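Field: COMPLEX_INPUT
Field: COMPONENT_COUNT = two
Field: RESIDUE_TOTAL = 948
Field: MODE = joint
Values follow.
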Amino acid sequence: MDSQEFREAAKAAIDEITEYYDNVASHRVVSDVKPGYLRPLLPASAPLDPEPWSAIHADVHYPAALAEMYSNTFNGAHFNWICSPAVTELETVVMDWLAQALALPECYLSGGSTHGGGVIHGSASEAILTVMCAARDKYLNAVTAGLPADSEEKEEATWKHRSKLVAMGSAGAHSSTKKAAQILGVRFVTVPIDEDASFAMTGAAVAKTVADLRARGLEPFYLTASLGTTDVAAVDDFAGIAEVLSPTAGTAQDIWVHVDAAYAGSALILEENQPLTTPLAHFHSFNFNPHKWLLTTFDCSAVWVRSRAWLISALSIKPHYLRNEFSDNELVTDYRDWQIPLGRRFRSLKLWFVLRSYGIRGLQAHIRRGVVLGESLEAKLKSRPDLFSIFTPARFGLVTLRVAGADEDEVNARTERVYEGINADGEFYLTSTMVNGKFAIRVCTGVERVAEEHVQRLFDILVERAGAEVGKKA
Amino acid sequence: MDSQEFREAAKAAIDEITEYYDNVASHRVVSDVKPGYLRPLLPASAPLDPEPWSAIHADVHYPAALAEMYSNTFNGAHFNWICSPAVTELETVVMDWLAQALALPECYLSGGSTHGGGVIHGSASEAILTVMCAARDKYLNAVTAGLPADSEEKEEATWKHRSKLVAMGSAGAHSSTKKAAQILGVRFVTVPIDEDASFAMTGAAVAKTVADLRARGLEPFYLTASLGTTDVAAVDDFAGIAEVLSPTAGTAQDIWVHVDAAYAGSALILEENQPLTTPLAHFHSFNFNPHKWLLTTFDCSAVWVRSRAWLISALSIKPHYLRNEFSDNELVTDYRDWQIPLGRRFRSLKLWFVLRSYGIRGLQAHIRRGVVLGESLEAKLKSRPDLFSIFTPARFGLVTLRVAGADEDEVNARTERVYEGINADGEFYLTSTMVNGKFAIRVCTGVERVAEEHVQRLFDILVERAGAEVGKKA
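Field: COMPLEX_OUTPUT
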């Protein structure tokens, strides 16, 4: 869809929206469809090719913007099935489509063997808080399962365990894990990462952290692993982590592993990245944000769990005014029990429009473009070893780099000055990171509308500024 | 703005949006404005009259829909000031405008004496979880303040207190308070309400609950009071509650009181309701949802606190990649520290468009219409005492009613049958409530596009169905 097609489609949507409001009184106020009505009406998976393919311009996100217009028109709070069956059922179908497109293990599908499923949250922070809450309750239920229900003994034991709970995340995990622990009032401990392992969290580091915590009488119950860390897009060693946690898997001491792929998860749509998902079958939950790199407008964070009962058990409450025959008979999904808020927006419409407008192949082309641009920047930087060192190589469209210098202090100082100079100019806005005392510039090419000409222009500016720092002509 | 005006304005917006994307590369990527740049450019309060007044049709919500179109165009995550200064600064200004329009005590204004301020969340559930989290940390900090920082003694004392914390809400408070307590892992206790006090929570009931809890060694730290309960729109006795909590106000045992006005808060825009807000100066936080009754599209929940430091202290974390000179020097507001998620949508644009398009007077006219329609239905129901009893009188556009009968069981059974019959027809969708064993039908007239003709039609249907139940001709 190019900008002219968007212009026409959007204006047609405006006409529909206006007519919808003008005639709203003539619509039925409550739906008379039956639970499960929607899935048979839709394809079993997202289209490979866009509809129509010829219209794809992989660098615009108009389909999601159109979906938002409709979503705001329906303007519901959509907190249970009976409010708006289509909102609920489309979300289930679209999240299955998306899980298939990313090659998530079948346990994360709504019809999978472990009764998993997906839900759309607003942000990765909410996703992580929600799964950490479910992990906590799952753990507390398991470790006190032997005690009589509602007994004082059980109450006391639960409080004793609560006071010892530890949530873990690697030093490279996004700060939202620490924030979630702070909100839930549980301890947070960092698993160290090492430049030698490309800043990935290893099984050995997890094993050591868990052993140290247990030796201190503490109870690790949750771990965030990352598929693409915020700083440098590192991928943790999932197989190694699964291996060291396997002795307690399925026992009361089972440690919930959540994989946060907020940014890089979109790259799982490329077949070459899909082997990364195999070990997820040993873990408990997964999220990524289509609003970051999958051409979907903010906000849209996709979350899957291996067993939906974990979420519902932690988050369900049933006041009278939310009861209805469909929910009471467990015929339907009430997504309010899969999230923190009660109300929810019709976000699945965005994913539905995006998946159908681009098709899987269109989305693959878009993601590959960002990956290739990152590799292009890396190649350019490598052509000037007198000026730059690659801190971490191009991965998922992210390159991090440092300016050459005699020692760590000089490298840090020069890199920071180049970074601040470029941002002050206002033509590009870069971000930076400080990992194990090393300051590096981050350049992300996995962004809509970034093209080779922008990468070249940024490289030229980097050369000019780094050249001035290093004292050579550019 | 009528539907034709919306149609034209929306199509003009589409043209602007298309041009924005087509020329996005020519814009400066990071803003060069200075903190505080926006407030001097805007009026000090929302306009009394709409712009232009003649265009107001109080029953459409187009301005918010237009704002959503622009908001989705800018499509940022807006988590700190530097990302998008306008998003932050407009929110501060608009939340001050709104606080003034609702006559909230000055302590809730951003420039107020206690450094309060407002923030927009997605839903009341998030608002309540967020303030309960802040209340918990404020309480724990206060009761352990005498112990040395980072000492084992302090750590132990904190855990001892954590295990005794109790969040309270009346039996009429929305279920989101119970859900927030469940998420935070603190006890939840209900304060009883009584039909004799019109289902309002009284100071005496709070005092008794608090005394009972303390006698059991527990530590009540938080209370949700309601301005318009979900079931019957009751208003709790704020003055009485403030009075009984005054002995511990400002001490380490201070109980945080949050006033949830999710639905009825919009009615504070009417001067006759504004005396209700005076006692809020003794409380800690307040929220209402403009998306319920103030012509704003879902989602938009407005929250104010008396001291913003309480939120920031509970929710702030500062990883390297979120740092920047403006935040580090505390020159600006970073709303990510006032909420659970990191990213945030540009929701203040909706409120800004709504306040300017309708003006305070236009919004007052809209709210008054819903109130008057509720009174109209109540009068009609009272004209048929043979068929109906008023369970709770029209308040904020909500009437609850029961069908006549010989005893409570017959009344409940008849009322439920009338309720289910009407919903099965699909012309109207009513909700119900069960309060102290009494089943009642809820009719809410505080909704856009509900007009006298709909109230009359609903009354006719109620008469027909209740007449059949009571065994008389309608």
